[in-house]
Amino acid sequence: MSDIRLQIDGKEVTAKEGMTVLQAAQSAGISIPTLCYHEDLAPYGGCRICVVEAAVNGVKKLVASCVQPVAENMVVRTRSEKIDRIRKTLLELLMAHAPDSPELHDLEQEYGADRGRFEKDASFCIHCGLCVRYCAEVVKKNAVGFIDRGIRKEISFIPEIAAKECDDCKLCFPLCPTSYLQAAYVLVESLAFPRE
Amino acid sequence: MPRINSPVELEAFRQEIVSKRDPNKPCITLCSGTACHATGSKEVALAIEQELENQGLTNKVGFRRTGCHGFCEKGPIVVIDPEEICYLQVTPEDVPEIISSTIKEHQVIDRLVYADPTTGEKTAHEPDIPFYKHQQRMVFGANRRIAPQSIEDYLANDGGKALIKALFELTPDQVITEVKDAGLRGRGGAGFPSGVKWEFARKSPGEPKYVVVNCDEGDPGAYMDRSLMEGNPFGVLEGLVIGAYAIGSHEGYFYVRQEYPLALENLSIAIERAEEHGLLGKDILGSGFDFDVKVHRGAGAFVCGEETALLKSLEGKAGEPRPRPPYPAVKGLWDKPTNINNVETWANVPLIINKGAQAFASIGTEGSKGTKIFSLVGKINNTGLVEVPMGISLRDVIFEIGGGIPNGKKFKAVQTGGPSGGCIPEELLDLKVGFDELTKAGSMMGSGGMIIMDEDTCMVDVARYFINFLTDESCGKCVPCREGLRQMHKILTRITEGKGKASDIATLESLAETAVEASLCALGSTAANPFLSTFRYFKDEYTAHIEDKRCPALACKQLISYYIDPAKCTGCGLCLKNCPDEAIDGGKQKIHIIDQEKCTNCGTCFDVCPAKFSSVIKISGEPVPAPIPEDKRTIVRKKKSK
Asked: Cα B122 from chain centroid?
């Protein structure tokens, strides 16, 4: 693997080929906010909170740093007025679902987000997919998955698998930023495999 | 039919077919595409078969059921060759006369030919009808001459020639150079140069390589790909085999919407015929090149038209886009190098190989070459599919070919590029049609939908409608699209209901920016276009809705009131009789009055009030006048002045 040199926030950074911009930034001690990223999981690119500006040969665009591979001579900015504005809107959109999520609170302050900007929506899942992906990729049980599409999309435990596997595992529980997962689990447990 | 094992054998077979056909023998061509099917082409077909038999003409007159001719507004369409006499809106009852007069006596039946809606001038000869005259039907034209399931028809119309040329005279690199030099850009939406894409896939390491036909056409009102697939599946297949040869692929997939049953049927038969004849499968035409295809039926998710979502769906997974890079050319189907093009793109390939890159590139604008098929729908006289050279003006497409706006209404906007395209206003009607030109105007080419809107269309409501469609079709993976569209839809709905706030525009703009800049795929990054383009060109309509609570087009139900003009009401009682809410008070010789408290704005009174009276009017943004006093409600008939 050859070395790739790039610049992040004015700092010269050397990364390995195949690394993402996020990994390169982290290795250089530069922090980029994330919500759906987890180092044990394949990058997902869903929450978009990790957007940064990346320029190759002078062509600038906003990219999700968790999925964007590094490139030679790439110039990255992790903060700008525009990036902050977009992160603020993304946070506000998510806080319409999960106004009490501690992960969102930390970022709310940093980006000056207004948790009341958008009308509240009933479900407090933010669709980061951490539970679904952790169960599929690490635990390899597929006990929880996404169902439906778009704004009707939600996580759901598969009762047949969950009844057998979940009680002794629950590794996904601490990953959930909103505790919607726990609620979904309690629901499936009471409906599909109630304890005696 | 024995397999064809060489170009020489194919040419001999072609000659055999052609020599058996008498070009002077009368032939009845009946459009049997989906639109004509809906207007009764099947019944007409039965009548033609029956009548030919009755008159003892079955062997003397040819009869061909073809794919879509494009003039869907006037279907079912019958064309009599060799004279090319075109009959429109033909019914089974017309058939005996067509056969006895036109086939036997060479008489044109006046009532069945095209009549200009304004001048009444009749045109019988198909190529002279204004709808066809201004088109350049290089790709779509074959539909009219071949029965989609007949390989003989396809070969008789020069089918397979490009395949022979590619496999036997050109190297794969030469084919790619040809497509690059032609300047062919993807017809599915993004307009990426096809030859460059092919080259990426060819040079990309990894075996096997795949080629895919994207027939997941999902834009509302668009059916170009459907009609090509239904009408000329061999043409698409030939383009695909040539592309596969160029890229070095031996396995291809057709991804066809489940909702296109006729396309699926005709394609499956075409594949079978091509295999039997040695145009597909092992050692195609003795060239040593092997290529197989499979057909996959898509379940009709709009987002599966996006290439990475389509490939996921093809693998049997949920159709969700994934981040690019890596592009499918590097990591596509089952992580192998994959080239995916839209139906119309593939259908252009045989043309380029046959006529040469230069001939192809001589048509069009600097950045957009060749022709493009558009579906003209909405408030337009000639609804249908049209193929025009790139660079033609929107005005020519809408007024010369499309025949303008029905009922003497005024043109307001044309929405191009599907739901995530944009609305182009009247002052830009002279814009040349091309990828870059449309993008610059805040819209896009997309796959070629054109929805025409007249003065009665509210542009805020149009934005709300398309954002609603996209919210529904979002896969839900990324936040800017899933959540951003959800909120945009809520705000736009509120504005059309007269509950808009001054701050709504700024919120919409920031949601639009977030969707454009931060979405994962092209669905999200273009999803704000309906708002952005309508706001750019029709800002005053937004202001009217938000500030004055007024809908200038008088279309938003919650912002209008119905009122009966006392000076015009004749007391005919039609509105009273039809009002479902008993909101109208009236009687004989009495001016009718709408009780605004009871009225639910259904618009029935407006629709039933005879046009010669037009006494029911819509009012928006101002108070409804108080009902006239009871003692003045008696209608005094005016004495005839003479």
From this structure: 27
Asked if B504 is an interface residue toward chain A (Cβ–Cβ < 8 A), one would say no
What are B165-212's pLDDT values in tens digits? 999 999 999 999 999 999 999 998 889 999 999 999 999 999 999 999
The range of the structural domain enclosing residue A72 comes to: 3-79
| Partner-chain residue, chosen from B322, B325, B477, that has the shortest CB–CB distance to A69 | B325
Set out the domains of chain B in order of their start, with CATH numbers: 23-129 (3.40.30.10), 151-361 (3.40.50.11540), 371-454 (3.10.20.600), 459-547 (1.20.1440.230), 559-632 (3.30.70.20)
Contact (CB, 8 A) for B290 and B249? no
pLDDT at B90 over 90: yes
Q: Distance between CA B609 and CA B492 in Å, rounded?
A: 32
Helix axes B343-355, B233-247, angle to 10 degrees: 80
- What one-letter code names the amino acid at B379? K
**A112 strand-pairing partners:** none
Quote the percentage of chain B above a pLDDT of 70: 99
Is the domain of A7 the same as that of A75? yes
Any idea which residue has 């759901």 for tokens? A156
Which ipTM was obtained for this model?
A: 0.96
| Domain assignment present for A124 | no
Give the C-alpha separation, B28 to B44, whole Å: 11
- Note the pTM of the prediction, 2 decimals: 0.91
Concatenated DSSP letters of B99-115: IIIIIIH----GGGSEE
Nearest to A151 among B482, B517, B518 (CB): B482
* Distances from the Cα of B462 to the Cα of A25, A127, B412, angstroms: 43, 29, 12
Pairing of strands A75-77, A144-147: unpaired
Model confidence over B28-39: pLDDT tens digits? 999 999 999 999
**Residue B473 at interface with chain A, using a CB cutoff of 8 Å:** yes
Residues A62, B517: C-beta atoms closer than 8 Å: yes
Q: Is residue A105 part of a domain?
A: yes
> Looking at residues A89-96, what average pLDDT do you find?
96
**Residue among B301, B477, B487 whose CB faces A93 most closely:** B487
User: What contacts A190, CB < 8 A, 6 or more positions away?
Assistant: none
Considering only CB atoms, which chain B residues are within 8 Å of A151? 471, 474, 476, 482-483, 485-486
Q: From chain B, pick out residues whose CB is under 8 angstroms from the CB of A19.
A: none
